Amino acid sequence: MSECILKVALDSPLDISFDYLWQAEEGERPEIGQLVLVPFAHREVVGLIVGIETESDLPRDKLKAALAVRTQLPPLSPAWIALCRFAAEYYQRPLGEVALPGLPKNLRAVKTVSLDKAIKKLVKAGSAQTATAGDTPRLNDAQQTAATSLANTREFVPTLLYGVTGSGKTEVYLHAVAQVLAREKEDGIPAQVLILVPEINLTPQLEANVRQRFPEVMVATLHSGLAEGERLLHWMAAHNGQARIVLGTRLAILSSMPHLKMIIVDEEHDPSYKQQEGLRYSARDLAVWRAHQLNIPIVLGSATPSLETWQHVLSGRYRKLELRERAVQDAVLPKVGLIDLERKAPREVVTDGISASLLAAVRKRLERGEQSLLFLNRRGYAPVIHCDACGWISNCTRCSAFLVLHKRDRRLRCHHCGLEQRIPHACPDCGNVDLKPLGQGTQRVEETLHGIFPDARIMRIDADSTRLKGSAQQAFDAVHRGEVDILIGTQMVAKGHDFRNLTLVGVLNPDTALFSHDYRASERLFAQLMQVAGRAGRAAQKDGGNPAEVLIQTRFPHHPLFAAVRAHDYDTFAGELLEERRQANFPPFMYQALLRAEARELQTALDFLHAAAACIDHDGITVNDPIPMTMTRVANVDRAQLLVECPSRPVLQGFLKDWMAALRPMKTRVRWSLEVDPVDI
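and the corresponding structure tokens:
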């Protein structure tokens, strides 16, 4: 019998590895990267072997014995462990809190029933498929130039594929994937490609395109919408190399892919790539680091790149490939018009937030048999109900927010804590029975349009209408089949979808973002408007003219942002924003971290943040005053924040490491967390 010490990382807030004894027959020595079942506290948990030693700093009689090593699973590679270690160090979290949650839940189960089933299924499935490959569309000159450039790239070169909406970025991705898989046959070296998308509802369309183009290749998908058994099966296919192409949302960046040869990040600007709880990582940034680590190419695609990526292009750190025209012949960018809601002309009468001009444009599309999209990034019927007599409004009793009216369900619902109440028959303060909705949501727009166009086929797509699994894809399929005349939606419909018969986009109420406290608001609004505008006019123009049109309702038609949207001019707009950021010392010219604190009383959270700011020297670091968060109270918990800044990323990282070492031993009833590179302040 041989004995060794296993150093095991566990999903624990303690930033250490735990030592366990292991005894085995000769030749059965465990390997780094294997999963192991160990006793921890009063339960059994699965951990990751990150080291194997002959001695421990602890007395032998204090060590517990490991229970079982998961030998049926190939070890996780040193490169994967290095990725998790980098994420742990950069985002200031213990290694175990990064590596273990990055694995499927069923893989971390005490019993191996699900793992054994997945292995058997993968053995039966094999990698061969029986489908027939679909036709490969011919690339235009710009697409061909971009595809050729990517095909000739084998080492780490971060590339921004900058293309207008509808320019055929997906087709360039597929050609790049084909080249990587073709080299596998030429070189005899296994190859895998990882493709990231920002949201779950974008995966089915891309997956269908990929499977049609590569019918002989096993494709795996990884996102939070999968059942745990499905997620384990797909993760295993990627881990053992059977899946040559992996599609997924942000969690897929932590998937194990031992033969990874290219990473593609579609819509790289999207804030959905930033995890907002637990390990607050940026999947896009980790993708760039992983590509650098493996010395493989990475492609970042967007029509409206993030300012961080754009600055990297301007500084020469990233290469830029451009697609300035739409891929479909004779398809051109839609004409963008503004509807000034401040004008008093009779024809601009507004009905429940929809102007007469926009209604006339919708009617014209109905007469021509074309589709329209009305975009409003606010679900529910109305943001609030109120009483004209005394001024009462429907506040949430647990949050610093309103209860949103959901008329069809006859409920008031908080979108932050989930509190629900019945709609009161009368004002709780004065008894007035004439309570009125204030503002508009997608449900109210839907009701209004049903009243104006009773014969039209109207569909609403938002988080409320697509709660059931598969319902979102069914809704999008109905739009693609032409079974919908008017589509109403939130940001779910704004990007990635190729609606060929959609020729009108109407944007309702974009003005709130123009005067937001968030310095990123204008960047996000511009990207959102450009993305939703890109849903129109993706097919060839009809009768020699361009029927595609985007109408934006606003009370501030002379705002520079709308001028840039009308001109489809991201370059100038991004340049102006970058100059503003440079003068104000905002990212990407400043590096930030945000310490958040939560407590039953706001003062308790603020006191903790004051103590945190004073617990360590911070030369070279700007430590701002603790302040309440904009949404101060959520679910009866008060929240405050402390922002630290530094023009040097290494200096900030060094400070954060020392700061966390000082904060972790502090005894406090406050729940706190640190976010590096915050996107919402």
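(Above: one complete record from the training split.) The two ends are 57 Å apart (CA to CA).
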